[in-house]
Design brief:
Shape: globular
Strand content: 5-15%
Mean pLDDT: 87
Distance between the termini: 54 Å
Structural class: alpha+beta
Low-confidence stretches: 1-75
Radius of gyration: 23 Å
Number of strands: 17
Length: 583
């Protein structure tokens, strides 16, 4: 047992993970507790009991927590929970302006990615070809290309597919980046000479579109990767290899706060083996190996918490944001502009952790452990030749207090641009649902709203806002059996982890208790499901069919099953047909 600042830790697993959103402990954490461990094993009889049922296993009313001011009612055979006014409506600006913000705004992070992480330098050194970029899940907006290049690419694809010289030339990759045709990868005229040329010293940053923008695949498609075509904003990028792309950087060590880190006892928490966590002493090759390993950093995922836990989560869609709150798979943020600001002021420029507000937040959140994380990061930057100057690169102004949802590290980017982007998110329609057999869809809808009683949590009418429910983790995952790593004063729940499973890793530190609610899971939009290759936020279920199959067992995450194979198939067909016009 170790006491650091005001946080009392159990040895073996807290790591430096008590960082960014251990949030708001502020020296008030108390002694750890050891709860009795329940029996989480599922017997054959348990599974048989599920198979004997013809409906979905569902949580009891008492197991579902709503934000204050809502009072859900669970009618039998209903179209969904009855909820009052949406408590999570966000402020909006001009959607037309927000389109440009979403696609091309970096808020200055190009200096972080070019001068610190050295991502474009790594891409050049790796001699990345357009075909390889597509294989890594990046997509190309054909409408961003000049007419001559667009025609050359189109003609080559028509004649030779992916084997032609243009798409296998690293120089073409740089040309695509200069044209801002690689979605989410933003080249900036940083030397202000009136043209963009990365080879001449212009910098490259990242925008939200990297994980939330695709194409219509009208020119070319790599089925397990990216595509070339007209840009489509909003859908989740399911095949992007974020970890592999980050590993190309010439200074991947500069991403230390986003990695799975060892604690003082040599253990770590995340997808990598406990002993395989990284530290400030880890070499560049070790960081590259971590980020490029698909078992540690699977496709379609991004680690959105710089907490020292290796917990990348599957990318969510950003269409119909007016229906989608709260934000984060654990429901930790209530407004989309809070989510966007956190992305730009923390995740896309981690030097903010070394600003006065960032250090104050880390110290307030984790005492000496937070101080150590900042010191380690500062040391790594110095060692790699990019010492912290005292000011972050992101163009943001001091705002509020560190730890507040609006400004976690005491910084906020331009508010007008944030709310313009929020308006654009609201305006984006969902992709059309997958057409299917009408009788199967009708039967699936009937089961979904009545026999299966899925509407305990979910709406049938997808034009309604997602119920703002936070489902307790023990309900969404009966196998949850957490070890308490540190106690925190109410309303924060203890820092806790169920060893050996990734489902709760996102909630170890960051969860809705930041807002005075519970540790649990927020509800997702039920749209664009036909395109989704894996399910649940940790990619732990390989298909929608498998999600509803009782052979996963009583203790599995989301153990709400439909036993009859035909009925289950019909519900899957129904769910894949849903879009924002489905009633």
């Amino acid at each position: 047992m170790q006491k650091i600042g005001g946080v009392t830790l159990m040895s073996g697993g807290a790591t430096l993970a008590l960082s960014l959103a251990t949030a708001l402990c502020f020296g008030g954490c108390t002694e750890e507790r050891a709860d009795p461990a329940p029996d989480t094993s599922a017997s054959k009889n348990d599974v048989a009991a599920i198979d004997a049922q013809t409906d979905v296993q569902q949580p009891k009313d008492a197991d579902v927590q709503e934000p204050k001011d809502t009072a859900p009612v669970e009618p039998v055979g209903s179209d969904g929970p009855v909820v009052g006014a949406n408590p999570n409506v966000h402020e909006v600006g001009n959607a037309a302006s927000g389109k440009a913000v979403f696609r091309l705004e970096t808020f200055g992070n190009e200096a972080f990615w070019t001068d610190v992480v050295k991502l474009p330098q790594g891409v050049v050194a790796a001699k990345l070809t357009p075909v390889q970029a597509l294989q890594n899940g990046l997509s190309v907006d054909v409408e961003a290309l000049d007419p001559a290049t667009a025609k050359a690419v189109s003609d080559e694809i028509a004649a030779k597919g992916a084997t032609g010289p243009l798409l296998n030339d690293p120089a073409t990759t740089i040309k695509l980046i200069n044209a801002n045709a690689v979605i989410g990868v933003v080249a900036v005229d940083s030397n202000q000479d009136g043209k963009i040329d990365v080879a001449a010293g212009d910098k490259v940053g990242l925008s939200c579109a990297l994980c939330h923008g695709v194409t219509d695949k009208s020119a070319f498609d790599v089925p397990t990767g990216g595509s070339i075509g007209k840009r489509v904003d909003g859908p989740a990028v399911h095949n992007i290899n974020v970890g592999g792309i980050l590993a190309m950087a010439a200074n991947t060590r500069a991403l230390l706060p986003m990695a799975q880190l060892k604690g003082a006892d040599g253990t770590s928490i995340g997808r990598a083996p406990s002993s395989a966590g990284l530290s400030k002493a880890s070499k560049e090759a070790e960081f590259d190996a971590y980020f490029s390993n698909p078992a540690f950093y699977p496709r379609g995922m991004f680690d959105d918490t710089v907490d020292g836990v290796g917990n990348p989560m599957h990318n969510p869609p950003m269409f119909r944001a007016d229906l989608a709150a709260p934000w984060g798979s654990a429901g930790e943020l209530s407004k989309v502009d809070q989510f966007s600001n956190t992305v730009y002021t923390v995740l896309l420029d981690m030097t903010t952790l070394l600003t006065p507000g960032g250090k104050a937040f880390l110290h307030a959140a984790a005492g000496k452990a937070g101080d150590q994380m900042a010191a380690d990061y500062e040391e790594v930057l110095k060692e790699t030749g990019v010492p912290f100057s005292g000011k972050a690169f992101v163009k943001a102004t001091p705002a509020g207090k560190p730890g507040e949802p609006d400004n976690l590290v005491g910084l906020r980017v331009d508010k007008q641009k944030l709310i313009d982007m929020s308006a654009y998110f609201n305006s984006l329609r969902s992709p059309k649902g997958l057409p299917g057999d009408a009788a199967a869809i009708a039967n699936g809808r009937k089961i979904f709203r009545s026999t299966g009683n899925c509407t305990t949590c979910h709406n049938v009418d997808q034009s309604k806002f997602v119920p703002p429910t936070i489902v307790p983790l023990k309900t969404i995952w009966p196998g949850d059996n957490p070890k308490i790593l540190a106690e925190r004063d109410p309303p924060l729940n203890p820092v806790q982890d169920t060893p050996g499973n990734t489902f709760d890793d996102k909630m170890i530190v960051v969860n809705a208790s930041l807002r005075g609610l519970i540790r649990g899971s927020a509800l997702p939009l039920l749209m664009d499901l036909a395109r989704k290759p894996v399910f649940l936020h940790d990619n732990s279920v390989p298909s929608l069919e498998n999600l509803l199959d009782s052979t996963r067992g009583l203790m599995a995450p989301h153990p709400f099953y439909i036993s009859d194979p035909k009925d289950r198939a019909d519900v899957v067909t129904f769910l894949k047909s849903l879009d924002d016009e489905s009633k």
